[in-house]
Structure formats: C-alpha cells, structure tokens
Amino acid sequence: MSMASSGIWHITYLDMTIRILVALLLGGLIGFEREVNNHAAGFRTHILVCIGSATIMLLSIYGFGDFAKELNVRMDPARLAAQVITGIGFLGAGAIIRTGSYVSGLTTAASIWVVAAIGLCVGAGFYYGAALVTFLVLVSLFIFNKWEKYLLRKFRKHEMSIEIYDRPGLLGELVEKLSEQGIQISKMSVQPNDEKEERKRTVLVRFNVKVPQADRMVRAIDYITAFEEVLSIELPAFSGYSKAASS
C-alpha cells in the first residue's frame, strides 16, 4: 500500500474540530425547534446525538488509520456508522408516548434519527448532504407543521374524554354544546369509573370528534366545564390538553 493511499485514513486536528462544530451547529438548529415547542428531546439532546454520531463516524473512518498499512487488513468506514443507525432507534422510542388512541413523540423520534444521519454525514465530510438535509428538516418542522395543522385539522378525528357525575339528560346537553360549535361526533362510548369512590356515581365519556377550528373547541370546553357535574376534560391531540372543572 502506497503512502498516498494510506493518507486517506488520517485527518488533521483542525479538520476534525471543524466537523464536530458543524455537527453541533446543524443538530442545534433542529433541536432548537423541538425545544421551543416543548418536546421531550430538545436542544441539548439533538446536539449530543449529532456530535456523537459525527464522532463515531470520525472514529470509524480515521480511528484505525494506524492499521491501514498492515498486511491483510481491510478498512471498512461504514462498520460503526451502521451500528449508529440501528442503535439510535432505542433513544427515539423513549420519546414516543401513547395516550388512549393518540400517539405523540413520533416527529421527535424521527428528528433524533435524522440528526444522527446528519452527524454521520458531517463526520464523513459530506457537508453538502448534511446542510441540505438540515434545511429540509427545518422546513418540514416549521412550515409543513403549520400547513398540516391548517389543512388537515378538519379531516382528523380526535379523542376527547370527559369525566362526569351520572345525571339523566347531562350527556345530551354535552353533545348539544359540542354541536353548537360545529364539532362533529363520529363515535361515543360511556363506561363507569370504578377507580374513584364517590358518593355520586361517576362515568367516563369518550368522544371521537372532528374539530373545524381550535377556537371553537376552546369555547365548547368552556361551556362544558360550566356544568357542575363535569369533573375533568382531556383532549390529548391539543398538545396534551387536560382541564379540571372548577367545583
């Protein structure tokens, strides 16, 4: 093996420092958006994932450069990078939370996974690919997120749970308040709440609803909580909304 070919397995301290700092910057940009929106994995988590992936990529390519000159040694720069892609799924899974039929944290888990890919790109010196992916991720998180909420809100069904004291006619009054605000109910279930020991019997009512506008849902919730028999309302799709009715 010639000296020229063996030189590809070595990197200067300056170049290594630049790659780590670029990974910190790109990971921080995506993590900042997650932090602003109060997600489980935020600014520091994304930075750590990105620079960690870049470091592993650097180690995979250059960490064993001293062995490149040895006979019968074959270098594989992707050997450690492949383990990052597999292992990062465990970290992403920790950000996923399920509440009833509503699942949150999928976007954050995906952002962690793509930040790991960005870090690997930076570690390999693939700056253009890393910068392009970072730009597209930010567009997806900032712009597509608003577009999705604006256009798809009326097509999606959300689960709404209301805990109430069992009173004849109350359920019909709640449905009427929702209908007045243009909220469509596609499915409803009622089950006794055996977890609490109350003098009055309580039930848990679950609705699958379509919400045309967020402000209408807010008004409907205000009307519903005005009932003395309503104990609490939960609407996880609205950023984990939970409200206890005042007694």
Automatic annotation (TrEMBL):
Q: Where is the ACT domain?
A: 159-235
Keyword Mitochondrion found: no
* Location relative to the cell: Cell membrane
Q: Which UniProt keywords apply?
A: Cell membrane, Membrane, Transmembrane, Transmembrane helix
Mark the transmembrane ranges: 12-32, 44-68, 80-100, 112-144
- Chief subcellular location equals membrane
On whether Repressor is a keyword of this UniProt record, the answer is no
GO CC field: plasma membrane
> Which membrane topology term applies here?
Multi-pass membrane protein
SUPFAM superfamilies with a match to the protein in the record: ACT-like (SSF55021)
Q: What is this protein called?
A: MgtC/SapB family protein
Organism annotation: Cohnella faecalis
State the organism's lineage.
Bacteria, Bacillati, Bacillota, Bacilli, Bacillales
